[in-house]
């Protein structure tokens, strides 16, 4: 899949649109979730789960599979939705998001097929991914690769750079790190809070091969992953810096930190779907009636018992 | 007794009191690791931008910077979620802050189960146990808005490292204006003779509710509120132990090492009576809304009343034997 045919491109674009729609649905139904960071990574996930990752929903534990680690685990809605549209979990399961016995707000290893990593504490995913990559080498598994999607904000964490140093030291060219570089953190712009530029130079200085792409351009993404997969086995781990837009597809949420963690009301969600339909030239509808949950909190619980 | 609940969540009072203290103490600095609109330190940032330090998403550095600044004579309030203070940056808190007794006041926000939908990575049922086990660190969990404000004034006036809890919960109004907080002092909110229910933080509201339910069935339950977990009010624990011979603790925390542990350490040594602890067992606070978590983990007035009833029966059987 070095160059995408128009047909392949359409299939991936369909998946990406479906993921955005489902994200809106499940976040609205939960009354909680991360839209901004989910929408910036949609195309990256759609490409990975459309022929890049060697995985089989029928054999999610195959030892020869590629591993995918979502280090920015708060952006789990897009991953859950991608897994649902790739046959790993039923779409219905998405609607257990943030419910007891359901899918957690941050991914938890083993909670559903395709989730390899317990995340939520930022900065920890790349070490974990490097550990897996090293383990595959120690077990003489040269077939599997490890893909780790990290956030730009979590590059503030020292552990990311400890992991980067070790991956180069161990010559983990089976490790591909993708940075979802959307330039916005939880409470503001990266450049205002804690800048990480020049990011390319940083990874290069740590001994990585760096590829820089537009993280919403399907052809560019697939080409970069293809290159990472087949052309760069030279002992250096690979960093794909994907320039993205936080909240991509929703004019209201784009580059807007206020949509980092925020759920739309059902009415707002409808308007957002209209925005998406306009942006991507479609005419899709929600799969169900969306209702916002109510949390009466401590007062409701104490009062109910005393009735 | 019908409790009223505050309109403003505890975190709002935290932000407002930081601003208040900032006006009184020019040496006060606030540090934030990209969570200021959640923790509400944003209020301090707006008022005193020059005394607000943004560290990015980097908690080890957050506490290291706070320690270095404190060594220069500043009183620092590094703020992040309880999970990241107690679990992620524990080494920095221990080596750089607790051991050298620096003036660092750590606010653990979204404590216990109150990170709700964030799930196990952000919910933190360990902070009281972890912080209580560190040398020189005082630990407290406020029951209502007035108590949090009073607590922060006391914290500012008390030298050395202190850990206190904040959350987005709308707390019950337990206390009137003028309420004071002192380390090592608890509050008896309700007299009783059969069993004593001891709460900390906003969970004291559940204890008050349970006492009411027990009263309806003729069981007399005392209720004590323990905002200061280290040091803890040993005198009040002794008094309740002698009066009732049966204590049940309840906390927004694991049953190991927090309020239940602190109370049991005192009773085991000086007043061997029946003690039971309610909180989270050997599992995690999953992702769900607060009301669902409280019910799922049986941290409700009804569940506490049932445990208290069972403990009084155990006490009676033991004394009959």
Overall pLDDT score of chain A = 96
Number of strands of chain B: 12
Strand content of chain A: 5-15%
The tally of helices of chain A reads 11
Helix-strand sequence of chain B: HEHHEHEHHEHEHEEEHEEHEHEHH
* Count of spatially separate domains of chain B: 2
Class of chain A, according to the CATH hierarchy? Alpha Beta
H and E order of chain A: HHHEHHEHEHHEHEHH
Q: End-to-end span of chain B in angstroms?
A: 37 Å
**Low-confidence segments of chain A:** none
Biggest sheet of chain B, open or closed, and with what strands and sense? 7 strands, mixed
Instruction: Give the amount of beta strand of chain B, in percent.
Output: 15-25%
Q: Give the name of the CATH superfamily of chain A.
A: Thiamin diphosphate (ThDP)-binding fold, Pyr/PP domains
* CATH level-two architecture of chain A: 3-Layer(aba) Sandwich
Mean pLDDT of chain B: 97
What is the number of E strands of chain A? Answer: 5
Quaternary structure state of the chains depicted: heterodimer
Task: Tell me the major beta sheet of chain A.
Answer: 5 strands, parallel
Write the layout of secondary structure elements.
The complex is a heterodimer of chains A (307) and B (321).
Chain A: H1 6-30, H2 35-40, H3 42-52, E1 67-70, H4 76-85, H5 125-138, E2 146-151, H6 158-169, E3 175-181, H7 190-193, H8 199-205, E4 209-214, H9 218-230, E5 238-243, H10 266-280, H11 297-306
Parallel strand pairs in A: 1-2, 2-3, 3-5, 4-5
Helix pairs in contact in A: 1-3, 1-4, 1-10, 3-4, 3-9, 5-6
Chain B: H1 10-24, E1 28-32, H2 36-39, H3 42-47, E2 52-54, H4 59-71, E3 75-81, H5 82-88, H6 90-98, E4 105-109, H7 127-132, E5 138-140, H8 145-157, E6 162-165, E7 187-190, E8 195-199, H9 204-216, E9 221-225, E10 228-230, H10 234-244, E11 246-254, H11 259-270, E12 274-280, H12 290-296, H13 301-320
Parallel strand pairs in B: 1-2, 1-3, 3-4, 4-6, 5-6, 8-9, 8-11, 11-12
Antiparallel strand pairs in B: 5-10, 7-9
């Amino acid at each position: 899949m070095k160059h995408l045919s128009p047909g392949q491109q359409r299939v991936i674009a369909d998946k990406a649109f479906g993921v955005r729609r489902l994200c809106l649905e499940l976040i609205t139904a939960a009354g909680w979730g991360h839209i901004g960071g989910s929408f910036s990574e949609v195309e990256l996930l759609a490409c990975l789960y459309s022929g890049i990752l060697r995985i089989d929903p029928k054999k999610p534990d195959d030892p020869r599979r590629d591993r995918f680690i979502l280090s920015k685990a708060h952006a789990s809605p897009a991953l859950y939705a991608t897994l649902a549209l790739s046959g790993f979990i039923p779409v219905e399961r998405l609607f257990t998001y943030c419910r007891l016995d359901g899918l957690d707000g941050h991914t938890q290893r083993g909670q559903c097929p395709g989730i390899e990593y317990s995340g939520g504490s930022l900065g920890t995913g790349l070490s974990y991914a490097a550990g897996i990559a090293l383990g595959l080498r120690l077990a003489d598994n040269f077939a599997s690769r490890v893909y780790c999607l990290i956030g730009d904000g979590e590059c503030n964490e020292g552990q990311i750079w400890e992991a980067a140093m070790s991956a180069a030291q161990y010559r983990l060219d089976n490790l591909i790190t993708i940075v979802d570089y959307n330039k916005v953190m939880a409470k503001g712009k990266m450049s205002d809070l804690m800048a990480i530029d020049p990011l390319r130079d940083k990874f290069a200085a740590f001994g990585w091969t760096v590829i820089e792409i537009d993280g919403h351009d399907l052809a560019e993404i697939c080409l970069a992953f293809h290159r990472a997969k087949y052309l760069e086995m030279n002992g250096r781990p690979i960093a794909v810096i994907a320039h993205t837009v936080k909240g991509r597809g929703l004019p209201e949420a784009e580059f807007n930190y206020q949509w980092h963690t925020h759920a739309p009301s059902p009415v707002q969600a409808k308007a957002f779907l209209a925005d998406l339909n306009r942006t991507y030239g479609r005419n899709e509808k929600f799969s169900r009636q969306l209702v916002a949950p109510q949390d009466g909190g401590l007062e409701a619980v104490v009062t109910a018992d005393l009735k | 007794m019908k409790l009223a609940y505050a309109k403003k969540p505890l975190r709002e009072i935290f932000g407002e009191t930081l601003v208040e203290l900032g006006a009184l103490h020019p040496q006060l600095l606030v540090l934030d690791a990209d969570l200021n609109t959640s923790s509400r330190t944003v209020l301090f940032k707006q008022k005193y931008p020059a005394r607000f330090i943004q560290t990015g998403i980097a908690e080890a550095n957050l506490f290291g910077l706070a320690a270095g600044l404190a060594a220069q004579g500043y009183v620092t309030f590094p703020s992040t979620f309880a999970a990241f203070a107690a679990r992620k940056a524990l080494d920095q808190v221990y080596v750089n802050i607790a051991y050298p007794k620096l003036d660092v006041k750590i606010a653990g926000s979204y404590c216990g189960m109150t990170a709700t939908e964030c799930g196990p990575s952000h919910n933190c049922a360990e902070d009281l146990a972890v912080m209580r086990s560190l040398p020189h660190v005082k630990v407290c969990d406020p029951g209502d808005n007035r108590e949090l404000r009073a607590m922060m004034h006391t914290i500012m006036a008390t030298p050395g490292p202190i850990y206190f809890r904040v959350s987005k919960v709308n707390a019950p109004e337990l206390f009137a204006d003028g309420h004071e907080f002192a380390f090592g002092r608890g509050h008896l909110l309700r007299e009783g003779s059969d069993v004593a229910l001891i709460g900390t933080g906003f969970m004291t509201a559940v204890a008050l509710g349970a006492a009411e339910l027990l009263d309806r069935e003729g069981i007399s339950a005392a209720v004590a509120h323990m905002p200061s977990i280290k040091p803890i009010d040993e005198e009040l624990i002794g008094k309740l132990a002698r009066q009732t011979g049966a204590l049940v603790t309840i906390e927004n925390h694991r049953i190991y090492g927090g309020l239940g542990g602190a109370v049991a350490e005192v009773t085991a040594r000086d007043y061997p009576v029946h003690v039971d602890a309610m909180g989270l067992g050997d599992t995690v606070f999953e992702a769900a809304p607060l009301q669902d978590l409280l019910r799922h983990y049986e941290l409700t007035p009804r569940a506490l009343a049932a445990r208290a009833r069972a403990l009084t029966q155990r006490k009676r059987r033991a004394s009959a034997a």
